């Protein structure tokens, strides 16, 4: 029984580690999009177009929540900021739920 508990504990910690790393990657990816939009990167270049293409899927549920803000001629894309906050809230909820499940064992 002790062996099974140890194995499950290791699996749980590895899963939490992978989930945390995925979340950090997601937030970094969205921040990169925000930075590229802010700096006015050329969307026709390959790297920028790929980042915009794949991040559009992540940002689209948060479109039209807030209007974009222009600071002088620099774009602050509020939908990306909303997505970053929204995914952070979802991550916190998932982590809390996993901790509750872990405490019940």
What is the alpha-carbon Rg in Å?
18 Å
Distance between the amino and carboxyl termini? 13 Å
Number-wise, the strands total 2
Give the fraction of residues assigned to helices: over 70%
Alpha-beta content class: mainly alpha
Task: Report strand %.
Answer: 5-15%
Counting H and I runs of at least 4 residues, what is the number of helices?
3
Overall spatial form: elongated
Mean pLDDT score? 90
Count of folded domains: 1
Uncertain ranges: none
Task: Report the sheet with the most strands, covering strand number, pairing sense and barrel closure.
Answer: 2 strands, antiparallel
Order of strands across the biggest sheet? 1-2
Give an overview in words.
The structure is a single chain. With 105 residues, the protein is mainly alpha-helical. It has one domain. Helices cover 75% and strands 6% of the residues. It has a two-stranded antiparallel ribbon with strand order 1-2. The chain is elongated and about 65 Å long. The model has no long low-confidence stretch (mean pLDDT 90).
Write the layout of secondary structure elements.
Layout: H1 2-39, H2 46-59, E1 69-71, E2 74-76, H3 78-104
Antiparallel strand pairs: 1-2
Helix pairs in contact: 1-2, 1-3
Quick summary of this structure?
The protein has one domain. The chain has three helices and two strands; from the N terminus they run ααββα. The chain has helices at residues 2-39, 46-59, 78-104; strands at residues 69-71, 74-76.
